[in-house]
């Protein structure tokens, strides 16, 4: 006998942590704790309330004690039996209504029942021993005097309160059938062939199911049990079950303002469980079973919005191993909404078709995550991409309209926020001086990290430090009229990538959205955290560079025969950073670089007409910072990091003027004296022809058009394996009457993550 779901009075509050538990079922196990969350979260601390709070359920208290190892598995089963069949016999520590968890309690109880032995089995048999009506359903065993038939249901009932009538129940149930089976096309629940309900109709009881219980569906009853193969599908499930339903008689005892609305959403919710029993999927994870049932309330009765009571989900938990403590799984309906609303809410073939495909895949033997991935793939969408977009929509929570369009908005976002203030956690903050290291769980989980507010343009880097978890990454902000989203895509394990942040027009902060779609297992028990790092490279590019020039030339000008040689030696210490104004152009500016240049030249001239020889000796030097010399448009067209397929992006191109005074003395038979040129400048100065600045291109970049680097005497090639630019080239260039050889060496490192 298995049952699903019981609606509660209000949004659930987490249960109390029990330090000691007295249970009259034998020895109590030692106290302990589970730590399934291997990725600690500063924002996920749980509030706890007294066991006496009306929102606590017996199921959550029992499961909590079991998770802390305060009771044995056998004792847990007996406590579940007491909660279902004899709640007054529960020990005080667990004495609370089953509430919304009536269904899940029965699922767990029925799965454990066959393994009981000895005194525990006898205790459970005694608790279950009761006189049963001929049309009993789980623990609803009292005789109900009246019967009502509709096209698809047979309903047993007694007194109905809350201003409702049997006609209301009949009409609502038929509407739900017409929508979920008739319009949406979900497989109808099977009849229990050993003892079908009259006319083969679906059995419903209107009876008190316990304090705070709106209703439940059970796989155990007079007209419910294992069928094996549901004839309404085209495949053999093997574990399909006929079920029965119990609904609250009037909903007057649940404190709601609209009993008819309670009936409507409860019937829609519970009947999806009837379908899930018939598909043999009822044992799937609770965020799939209960999350989808809360989700379908909005598909069948869009305007009631009772499922708002479950807001919000635990955003940074995984789809594959979503927590069951504190009934968190009901809130997962909103993530299903974020994933499916793009296909059309409340219409056949729309959002409902996505969920239907998921459960059909599970029914055919697939585990939960492959079933979900295959369902989205059938709609030509990768679940990884849809989930990432759902994360963006969920964080910003913008109502659809104007520039806010699906899938990055919610039709009812304003109403959600009016009901419960948003609580999407920001995992951390990246600053100009400090990056952020964290973990995002495997198996479809999401994280959000806040980025700096200034300058208006800057690059942000993302490093996937995990060994095996691909991560989807975007940067987004709200402009007040739409969401500006720049998507980098998937960053594979042990790799990194970057995006340029454009803060122009942003209202509020910019955020990095990170999702992890690695499937650690088809149906994992635990989802572990995968490491990542986000940083903004405000640190300068640093390095050293040196160069030398050696040249010689000779020739005849009329009666003068001449020869000369020259050398230049220079060095620079580089400290470059992105220009905060021209960041979109990827310019870099000096941030404390230094340089030094020394130049010498010797020239001899023989004048045959005058029969005399003159020797010229020249020199010049300069040192300081590029601020003194003036960097001339130093640029790295793409530092983010360079793209190995893009030549321009593969280089760091530098040019600067280093002014110095060139002084020359001359002596000989023709003349003697000295001259001074205060406007000389280098590097690559050549007194004979003036300044010559040919590009010295590293071998790694040769083969491209040399004019590519015209005007850039220093070109550093990106070495991706070492994450640095390398200035390494030797080049001989012609000059009048000779040549000069330029040699450049050095490296410049891209900033490490802070």
Topology:
Elements: E1 3-4, H1 58-67, H2 73-85, H3 102-112, H4 118-128, E2 146-149, E3 153-157, H5 166-183, E4 202-206, E5 215-218, E6 225-228, E7 240-242, E8 244-247, H6 259-279, H7 286-300, H8 333-340, H9 351-363, H10 368-377, H11 383-396, H12 413-419, E9 428-429, E10 436-441, E11 445-450, E12 457-464, E13 471-478, E14 483-491, E15 495-502, E16 507-516, E17 529-535, E18 541-557, E19 560-578, E20 588-590, E21 594-607, E22 612-624, H13 626-629, E23 651-654, E24 658-668, E25 673-682, E26 685-686, E27 690-691, E28 714-719, E29 724-735, E30 738-749
Parallel strand pairs: 3-4, 4-8, 9-11
Antiparallel strand pairs: 1-5, 2-3, 5-8, 6-7, 10-17, 11-16, 12-15, 12-17, 13-14, 13-16, 18-19, 18-30, 19-20, 19-21, 21-22, 22-24, 23-28, 24-25, 26-27, 28-29, 29-30
Tell me what you see in this structure.
The protein is of the alpha+beta class. The protein folds into four domains: 1-35 and 47-129, no CATH class; 130-283; 421-535, Jelly Rolls, CATH 2.60.120; 541-749. It is built from 13 helices and 30 strands. Strands 18, 19, 20, 21, 22, 23, 24, 25, 28, 29 and 30 form an eleven-stranded antiparallel sheet that branches. A hairpin with a 3-residue loop joins β26 (685-686) and β27. It is rod-shaped, with a radius of gyration of 38 Å. The relative contact order is 0.07. Residues 1-54 and 629-649 have low confidence and may be disordered.
